Amino acid sequence: MTAAEFTIADGPALELSGDLPAPRIVRLVGRSATTEGSVSADGDRWHAVVPLRASHWGGPLLPLPVGEYELTIDGARPEETAVPLSMLGPLRAVLEHGIVRVGPPMDPAYDSGEGQAALERRYATRPGRLENAAFFESRLGHVADGDPYAIDRELAGRAPRVTRYWSVVDLSVDVPEGAIPVVEGSPQWWRARGAARLLVVDDWLRRRFVRSRGQVVLQTWHGSPPRRLGLRLPGWNFRRAVAVVRESLRWNVLLAQSPFAARSLRRGYAFNRTVWIEGGPRNDELVTGVGAEAARAALGIRADEKVLLYAVLDPDAAARVLPADIARRTGWVVVRIGATARGTAAEEGRVIDATGYPRLAHLLLCADALVTDRSPVMFDFSVTGKPMFFVAPSAGDRPDGRRPVVVDLESRAPGPVVRTADGLVAAMGADDQERYAGRYAQWRAVFNARDDGHAAARVVARILDQGFVRR
């Protein structure tokens, strides 16, 4: 019989013990992380301590992401072992039938609809005094990255007295130095979002939000939209239209990378208020070049090895141009499918799944070339001036016309447009980038004119000049 308990003395952990002989390997295996325990023997008993913390991509030790983790002792699951729900500081956990379920560090009562409704009534409908604080959220709280991250870093340097809150799905998200993480749905989250003078977000404001008098919402959006969105989606839908307009009315200022992005977002969200066209703060690092070495080290790729960043989103296109097919004939392929997916690197040959890598700009810097279809990454990667390859949809791939692109790649792409893995490998071997030099220059003039490495500085200067927060 294996005994178990949760402890917090040296950080949250699961402690196990049993009669000798001692197992060789005790693990918690989850979709987003795996941790291995230390095993020791004392008299006729063995003991194992399995940390409920993990380091992602060489970063700091942080609490495990929310989710289920299978407990295995020498590969077998101890079905009879159980530990009741325990609050363990930065997380909560319960062990049942060999499965550890990790939750956010808040009372489970707040998980219910009634609990969240009570918090809404307390904070959303009864706003108090605003504090000199900024509330940041990127990719719905799954990462601290993008424009909000770049603005946070600039604001921290120029206005250090401003309190900076970061909305996160759980405390496994690494927030910028000096910032305060607040877990979505917790009382601290509701209070911080309601009290901050400035909100900087790159997606919809979820849950109920009532803007207090004097509160400002800066919407940065998550990249220049390559497809129609919002009200411009094909097929009229009344409920969708109401939701889109209601959401855009929450925003005071919209940040756009370029005039193209400004037009797309204005039309898609019927936004008729202030738009700042200042470039993408997230791309400042692409100009300075800082971060490439760290990304290669975290991915385990040498400085002299070639890297292709694969950001193909359409499933039909991805089925025709498989990362493994490319890697066998080129070099390392780093896959970035969607920023909100969590996970560590899953390698297949020379293919690395970097979907969960926290800093997209660093992946763009470490890549020697990009292959994509309709990912917004194409408007960012072009800041580097490095080769780009595009996977075109085949005839009939999208017969329903869902979310049609607003950029004709066949006539404007600053690189070869291919339809198969063979076509991509041939295009990469042709080394005819000079042929696309004119298109590349025109592309950058249209989409990257303001991406000069100083976008975050300009945005924060506006924030401070207009008194959204005080220095």
Automatic annotation (TrEMBL):
<dbReference type="GO" id="GO:0019350">
    <property type="term" value="P:teichoic acid biosynthetic process"/>
</dbReference>
<dbReference type="GO" id="GO:0005886">
    <property type="term" value="C:plasma membrane"/>
</dbReference>
<protein>
    <submittedName>
        <fullName>Glycosyl/glycerophosphate transferase</fullName>
    </submittedName>
</protein>
<keyword id="KW-0472">Membrane</keyword>
<dbReference type="InterPro" id="IPR051612">
    <property type="entry name" value="Teichoic_Acid_Biosynth"/>
</dbReference>
<dbReference type="Pfam" id="PF04464">
    <property type="entry name" value="Glyphos_transf"/>
</dbReference>
<keyword id="KW-1003">Cell membrane</keyword>
<keyword id="KW-0777">Teichoic acid biosynthesis</keyword>
<dbReference type="InterPro" id="IPR043149">
    <property type="entry name" value="TagF_N"/>
</dbReference>
<dbReference type="InterPro" id="IPR043148">
    <property type="entry name" value="TagF_C"/>
</dbReference>
<dbReference type="GO" id="GO:0047355">
    <property type="term" value="F:CDP-glycerol glycerophosphotransferase activity"/>
</dbReference>
<dbReference type="InterPro" id="IPR007554">
    <property type="entry name" value="Glycerophosphate_synth"/>
</dbReference>
<comment type="similarity">
    <text>Belongs to the CDP-glycerol glycerophosphotransferase family.</text>
</comment>
<keyword id="KW-0808">Transferase</keyword>
